[in-house]
Amino acid sequence: MASVSRLQDARRLVIKVGSALVVGEAGAADRAWLAAFAADAAHLRGRGQQVLVVSSGAVAIGRRRLGLTRRALTLAEKQAAAAAGQSALMRAWEEAFEPHGLRVAQVLLTRDDTEVRRRWLNARATVDTLLSLGVIPVVNENDTVVTEEIRYGDNDRLAARVAQMIGADALVLLSDVDGLYTADPRNDPTARHLPRISRLTREIEAMAGGANAGAGVGTGGMTTKLAAARIAQSAGCATIITLGRRPSPLAALEAGARATVIEPSVTPAAAYKAWIAGSLAPAGALTVDAGAATALKRGKSLLAAGVCGVEGRFDKGDAVLVRDEAGHEIARGLVRYEAADAERICGLRSDAIEGALGYTSGPMIHADDLAPAAAHPEETGA
């Protein structure tokens, strides 16, 4: 089955868990469900897969703790509830993973953290480091400080942006239904389940209907899940929508439980390189020597030692052109230093950067953030 292979073959997984799963009927964390989920995730980690969890539930738990249960909340009350509930939510996640010897780490994001390139780079570096250390990041929207103008409002889209940011191979959305149907199966007994979708057409999106009114404490529905899947698809990430309200939902998925898989159109790496190459306006340029130019063509990172010229006024995270000494564009990439600092470290060895700047962000442009330019006519014989 497509869902089984996508789950098992993914090197890096993002799993979104909604409030309706995390929070029990009494308004506290559902520790039994969390324990079963943690056992599932530990199984994935045990075979070498990296797992990141996007978890709702802070506001729902905080409402109960603050006694805000009888009416709709204002934005300020939601933020207060998030502040009161987030610590309890993280404690529940820690206790769930502790028996498996796994550590968790809280990561709170706003929309700007996944859309402003400088903050995006910082967030990605933090998450990459956590994953490399064997930690399971637990991500949530930073509801305590976010405003209506810069908030996601649902964690489906946040999960898709996080999957895009870290180059995940699969995004698992645990829902209150076992995938997408041609109509709402709770209202239409003739609705047909769709196990695999290769293209998100208007007809497919129309099947999602409106927001899920029966979700109780959640804010999303199938419409937001398909919106998230579109983001993931463009980033080369498969999306799996399956039923979360059952014991061990990931184990059930591996055993062949019903799900909908929305296939990506490209690989995560190819999607990311294409985004750098074609979607970002360069804010400056770096000129590199012959040795660096050769190294870049072999897929290496651009080190400060190979840079011999800096043009433009760019910030960390901006896209820049990379040119050889003849002025030919050989690549584009996301630079890890602002222009003034880049000028100060031109030609320096990596071990001398911290002495010159007081900090280091690694190479001038990491290989993962470089997209090679198309070959020049003289190189192709055209």
Q: How many helical elements?
A: 16
- What fold name goes in the CATH topology slot of the largest domain? Carbamate kinase
Report the average pLDDT across residues. Answer: 88
Instruction: Round the Cα radius of gyration to an integer and report it.
Output: 23 Å
Q: List the strand order in the largest sheet.
A: 3-4-2-1-5-7-8-6
Fraction of residues in helix: 25-40%
Largest sheet: 8 strands, mixed
The CATH superfamily name of the largest domain is Acetylglutamate kinase-like
Order of helices and strands: HEHHEHHEHHEHEEHHEHEHEHEEEHHEH
Residue windows where pLDDT falls under 50 for at least 5 positions: 210-219, 375-382
Number of domains: 2
How far the N terminus sits from the C terminus, by CA atoms, comes to 46 Å
Class by alpha and beta content: alpha/beta
Number of strands: 13
CATH architecture of the largest domain: 3-Layer(aba) Sandwich
The percent range for strand residues is 15-25%
Q: Tell me the overall shape.
A: globular
